[in-house]
Amino acid sequence: MDSSSGSSVGFTRKGSAGLIVAIAVVVILLVALPAYRWFFLISVLIGLVIAGGLALWHRLHPIKEAEVENKRPLGL
Q1: More confident residue, 30 or 70
Q2: 6 in a domain, yes or no?
């Protein structure tokens, strides 16, 4: 099976390693730099407020099938 088709399910080893490195860098920065803690906290709060607002908006204004013009733009 061709792995470049984009249909693989799950995590790849390379992707998992990148995720672990990213989490480790964030944890190290949170421990080492007090100012980064505030930046991280404010960023997470802003992200949660925006995500909650978008979830609420899409719950109250669902997309109707008639509003979607071209469901298969590539003809696949």
Answers
A1: 30
A2: no
